[in-house]
Amino acid sequence: MRIGVLGAGQLGRMLALAGYPLAKTFVFYDMSGSPSVGLGEVIVDREGKYLDDFLSRVDRVTYEFEHLPVEVAEKLAQEKPVHPCPRALQVCQNREAEKTLFGELGIPTPRWKIADSAGSLRAVAENLGCPVVAKSNTEGYDGKGQAVLRSPEDAEAAWEAIGHPRLMVEKFVEFSREVSIVAVRGEDGQLAFYPISENVHHEGILRYSIAPAPKLEKHTQQDAERYIKELMNELGYVGVLTLELFETANGLVANEMAPRVHNSGHWTIEGAMTSQFENHIRAVSGHPLGSVEPRGLSCMINIIGEHGEVERLLELPYAHVHLYNKGERPGRKLGHVNVLADSYEELVWRVRNCVQFLPGSPEFISSLNRKSKG
Ligand code: AMP
């Protein structure tokens, strides 16, 4: 079976690496002009001229990148199975549509309102009560196109800074930590849920994911499973879906969803019986899903901006190094390291050992060690 992937970055690369043992072949469709996938067949098409060519070479279509025109996915879906469905793309490209769907399905969100002028941003900030987070309603990711308003007086400057005609304005959530759940749904509706991971961000970029998230109440995992199940069933979803959430004193609050394999699920490559990548390939190919049981305790460390001392990392018997074959650039995701351990104490120790070889990595602070920092 030939799988067509829209997008040609590291997620596509890891999908292919997981798909080859199942005898899948891959054709990537790149609209950026700078594919980094480095394997499979790549069609570079900045002007959208070769879509039919792409389609003629594949049996099924999926994506590793959600910022592509919905019309493209819809056009493809008329000819070949496209998983996940174009509606999933449409929902996650528009924060208003996404939060509305969450609300309809009983998934808690921050209180939110839409602003379409500097004046209405000020009024919304007053109505919700500051602090609030204003985000461009479309085209935003990794914290880009966002501003926190500490007072309604900040509205004018925030409106100018974001420079977008329509803003999603959310009440600022006082969370104890950020978490996510990665789940997969098969063509037959079979569901599987990975354990929730705790995600540590620095300057808007994910740096560490710990899974299973430490000190997690049982009902929290159950709540997250219920929410993502509602979403997948509503959308008739096939493939891996990720739901990013805030953990608060009053339970989970949903932030956003990603209709694809996700950076916070990279730990599953060595840390789970079946990786998110293999399960995505299984789902879009119509196969039974693999077990999502963890193999132990995991931490994923992102390699950002510079590679650091890779040779030293490779000497560590517990460090599983994954490199994406990309050039160094500030803020760029170049690879990740998965670390496994039998106890959280050992995990912290191992992660710190790895981090010393990754210059520019923020200190590893999570719920495992935050209090002991004094
Ligand atoms: P997003 O692009 O929506 O994922 O937001 C990027 C980051 O901004 C999140 O990972 C959070 O750290 C932070 N953030 C987003 N929305 C809120 C909110 N309503 N309250 C507090 N922090 C937020």
From TrEMBL:
Keywords on record: ATP-binding, Ligase, Nucleotide-binding, Purine biosynthesis
Domain annotation ATP-grasp: ranges? 99-285
Residues in coiled coil: none
List residues binding ATP.
95, 135, 140-146, 170-173, 178, 201, 255-256
- Tell me which InterPro entries the record gives: ATP-grasp, ATP-grasp_carboxylate-amine, ATP_grasp_subdomain_1, PreATP-grasp_dom_sf, PurK, PurK_C, PurT/PurK_preATP-grasp, Rudment_hybrid_motif
Identify the pathway: Purine metabolism; IMP biosynthesis via de novo pathway; 5-amino-1-(5-phospho-D-ribosyl)imidazole-4-carboxylate from 5-amino-1-(5-phospho-D-ribosyl)imidazole (N5-CAIR route): step 1/2
- Pfam families attached here? ATP-grasp, PurK_C, RS_preATP-grasp-like
Q: Which SUPFAM superfamilies does the protein's record reference?
A: Glutathione synthetase ATP-binding domain-like, PreATP-grasp domain, Rudiment single hybrid motif
What does this gene product do? Catalyzes the ATP-dependent conversion of 5-aminoimidazole ribonucleotide (AIR) and HCO(3)(-) to N5-carboxyaminoimidazole ribonucleotide (N5-CAIR).
Stated family: Belongs to the PurK/PurT family.
PANTHER family according to UniProt: PHOSPHORIBOSYLAMINOIMIDAZOLE CARBOXYLASE, PURINE BIOSYNTHESIS PROTEIN 6/7, PUR6/7
Q: How does it assemble?
A: Homodimer.
Write down what this protein is called. N5-carboxyaminoimidazole ribonucleotide synthase
Q: Which gene encodes it?
A: purK
